[in-house]
Structure formats: structure tokens, C-alpha cells
Fold this sequence. Notes:
This protein has one domain (27-146): Tick-borne Encephalitis virus Glycoprotein, domain 1. It is built from one helix and nine strands.
Amino acid sequence: xxxxxxxxxxxxxxSLAACSxxxxxSPLPSPTLxxxxxxxxxxxxxxxxxxxxxxxVSLQFVAVVQDSRCPSDVTCIRAGxxxxxxxxxxxxxxxxxxxxxxxxxxxxxxxxxxxxxLVAFTAIAPLQVSARTIEPSQYVATFVxxxx
Length: 148
């Protein structure tokens, strides 16, 4: 009886410990995408990560924080901008994150230093349409990561 009580209490202890562990989403690169190269433009879908060679860091396109760009089927007074949140991770730690803003108009980019890297946000698609909501995973952003 004492042995079964011991195993039963051990089982409940392990079960409770497993439930109390908070899992954080890992910014693992998508296995279906080929790795990007340092210094070259690459695209990432919303919520996904891309491995960057040769440094073995990954850039995660966490979210679109704001998209005030003018819908393609509307005439706007102001062009608007897109703001994204990105996270850069090294093999053993999260190096950091940054909010990047793509200015109004077709040209331009925003850059941020994260750890030993410079991340540039150069484009985002698709354009909004007034009667349609863009799902987070439908966004595709273009980035360039360099090591200055």
C-alpha cells in the first residue's frame, strides 16, 4: 500500500510540475523555407521566422503592429505607413526585438540595431483593399540583415 501511495503521489507531483511550466513560443525558422543570406533581401510571412546564414541567427516577423497604408481601391490624402515587430534570435538566446516602420510611399526603409546586427525593413505586401481584412499570416515583409 505504501509503495502504491508513493507512486501515486509521485505521478501527481510530476503532472502538476508539467502543468506549471510555461512554454514560450520558439522562433524556429520555417523548415520549408530555404535559409536567407546575410546582406541579401529575403521575405518572411507574418508569424514566421527565417534562418540567416552563415551566422545561424533567425529573424522572426512577429506581427504587424499597424497598417495605415492607403487601400488599393481608395484615393487617400495621406499614404500611411506599416509598422512591424521583429525578433532576432541567436542559437542560444533571443538577441532582441525592434519595431520598424515603413514610411509612406513606395521608396524607403527603416533600420534598427539588434545585438551585433542591423535589420532593415524594406517592403510589405499585400496592399489593403477597403472591404477585406488581411490575416496576419498573409502579410509578407522584406528584410535585409547585415553585420556592420
